[in-house]
């Protein structure tokens, strides 16, 4: 009897021990999760609050302005008649419930909020994840009692909480403006779903890449692909019948929730489930790699650096080569796409509807107004690249690498110039290339080969505006280094929103017409050198102030 009972007890004891051991290992790898989550929320609360205020503020402004623009149901029905076109579908998605204020809100703002939230969580995860590994702070944390997955999991959880807060507050803002509760809740959930997916995407790319720039670039490429797939799917739609291609895009999943129309909740489960799968993949990848390393291996370089790489500018080019290639490919694809559909877009702008006035951009020729806005959109994307590239001044100082350069023979001004000349020259090339691609693809649709050169020249007129933003990035890094990133990107966001959507928000004309981008004459308008000269002088002055302060102040870390 004892011979049969004893092994059974031992087996049970062994199983209990194994379970206890597994529980112990699981608790070990997540030890300190709660502490790290509180730390990340406390560290990033101001950034997250600014994002929430900006996104929720846009919801309230757009609802209020559209209530004024479309005061009667007849006005909304007329709008719905022109909204269901390939042009609107390509830009903002299929127009569900376009004859309601909620549907109009979706058409005008849903895509902007979703894409902005996706970028926000990508930057959040990379900044608090891969960038901290680069600086060595994660290694210090994990050298103590912190579990191996605790910090990463806290990072992804904090970004997910942020996505949820954005969704809830957007829903509350819409309800506060008198929109239907069920539609507002679905709209907020659709934003959260997109945010959760890109938390997962950023979690995976943070394991693949070895630098925060690489992680951001990979995640942004996924976002660009999701947007293009969504646009292609919506162009293939038959009325409100979506193309199956839409289900290949996380942005498409959010749109499939059809807020203020059918109010479907099932696509949110798809988004949340896919996000969990991505996080599980990221955890598995984190177990496989060494701290500080990425899954994607670095190629072995030559034993000695070439003549160009031994110069400060050559080193900067080498460090930013992958990012520059990614931005170039993305801008080319986007420019060709929008140039191809430009004529279709213009077909809906022949009426006197308020939305036509917005896209007209104050021009007599509606097509030129539409193309002018597309050029500004390209320019704003190029500015985003330029700011990302210029931000390396602050990044290098924060991580201590700038100290090594500053302690040698190179001066701070020369070092900073070597960091800024790359975004300055690269933005010039990107303006020419993307402008030519936009014009050439548009020209091919109307059999006019001259359009490529015309739009390349129109895009190059914005180069002083890009230089002004680069100088502002230097100014921020030099004068208030600890808040430089937030001020720089916050200012960019305000300028971008005013430039693209100022008319939609019914902002005063003097505000809309005097940003660094709207002050430049649009395609088809009479050329004026005055705004270009003023912007160039401002760029030189702000840059000079930045260089002077950078030369005089002490080094500053976070």
TrEMBL record:
Superkingdom as given in the UniProt entry: Bacteria
Keyword Transmembrane helix found: yes
Coiled coil region boundaries: none
Segments crossing the lipid bilayer: 45-63, 109-126, 156-179, 185-204, 264-285, 324-349, 369-387, 420-440, 460-480, 487-507, 527-547
Lyase in keyword set: no
Keywords from the UniProt entry: Membrane, Transmembrane, Transmembrane helix
Protein name: ABC transporter permease
Organism, scientific name: Cryobacterium psychrophilum
